[in-house]
């Protein structure tokens, strides 16, 4: 009994020290001393269990009050376990023993002749012994249940201590798991290279959990196979391929946590080792590939957002060690951290590729801009030179033709000079349009809207092409419709240039015969064209 109570005291003291590390310390001013019993009293009024420990045969004077055990009995009931309530029992036992001895001593006088005094003394001693015996029996009727309840309370405290030990063990395991996860997370997050992340993870897991092998299986591009991409000790050949249709793989992919798989599974099949006599425990956990594009095995194939890889961990084969719950929780937490780290690494690589692509495009754009600037400068130089050269020639031709008209000429010569002057002016207008378009700010031209004689335009065009047609023995005729307006508003130069181009092409490509120019008002049937009105009309020019 004394050893059991001592165990209880040590357990309670150990729980008190452990609980102090997990819970805030109580204010010492909240604890008071009971001057009548020299015992410490909890703030809620409950007595401490020190008197109970004294009753069991020892004193735990160093024990202090703590709230690690909830009181199950009232404080007055705990007083029953003290020593002083049983002093009358000891007195009764002592009186009973003394009276029994006295009775036996008086009985010795009854072997011989004895007086009435001896008889009365013997009778009184026997009556007193009987009374004390009855009183002791009645007292024991009340004390025995209390003694049994003390044993019950001792067992309760022992069970409570064991329960607290288990809870503290769980808390310690959780704290240890969190510490390992923080340590592994720090190591994993120290780099953003995906291969370095996996290598660091395997090294830290192997050192923390004393693993024989770690393996990382990546899905293929089509998602039908898993290929081994990384290992810790290279006990499995890299590049091994397994089908995702296997039941064990489907079981791992459908599970949210780490599960134990057979050591004969294709995911854990290692090279044969000598001296192996215990089948190792193997755990597999899925790793979500949150954001991995262009993530290829040995080249990290492009994967969908919902893809999963599998991480396999194997305990040493030369021991009978098994996986514990806290170790499985550690593996699950590390798998989540690996998924996040791989996602960050993929995003960083995509950003770097985007930056490289933008840099290449920027360099190409700069090169194209330089080439375009060179071309523009060359064009400007060409336009400047051509403008100077052509305008000098055209101005000279127009000036000489104008001076020639001021001299005395025959009617035929005057007609030829006037035609030459008209062609020169028309050519000058064409050159102006071409040069305007060729300017850097060009690409378009504005119409010079003004009133002019429409019939005169056709007569001038006919006069301009007649000399060329005469050289080719072609006759030229002009037909103007009666309903064609004479005075119109528009760009005279552009219209004349267009009609001259059409008529000139007819003369140019005709070898013999006749060239006829017909001008009339057109009436188109197309619905997408603007309907002609009194202010607008469509001009139809036919050259045959």
From TrEMBL:
Cellular compartment(s): Endoplasmic reticulum membrane
Ranges that cross the membrane: 88-111, 123-144
This enzyme's EC code(s): 2.7.13.3
BP GO annotations: negative regulation of ethylene-activated signaling pathway
Catalysis: reaction(s): ATP + protein L-histidine = ADP + protein N-phospho-L-histidine
A single GO molecular function term of this UniProt record: ethylene receptor activity
Protein name as catalogued: histidine kinase
Ranges for region Disordered: 20-42
Cofactor(s) recorded in Swiss-Prot or TrEMBL: Cu cation
Keywords assigned by UniProt, alphabetized: ATP-binding, Copper, Endoplasmic reticulum, Ethylene signaling pathway, Kinase, Membrane, Metal-binding, Nucleotide-binding, Receptor, Transferase, Transmembrane, Transmembrane helix, Two-component regulatory system
Family note: Belongs to the ethylene receptor family.
Membrane topology type: Multi-pass membrane protein
Histidine kinase domain sequence ranges: 385-544
Entry superkingdom: Eukaryota
Entry-linked CDD domains: HisKA
Location, primary (coarse class): endoplasmic reticulum
Pfam families, per the entry: ETR1_N, GAF, HisKA
GO cellular component, one term: endoplasmic reticulum membrane
Alphabetized SMART domains for the sequence: GAF (SM00065), HisKA (SM00388)
PROSITE patterns: HIS_KIN
SUPFAM superfamilies: ATPase domain of HSP90 chaperone/DNA topoisomerase II/histidine kinase (SSF55874), GAF domain-like (SSF55781), Homodimeric domain of signal transducing histidine kinase (SSF47384)
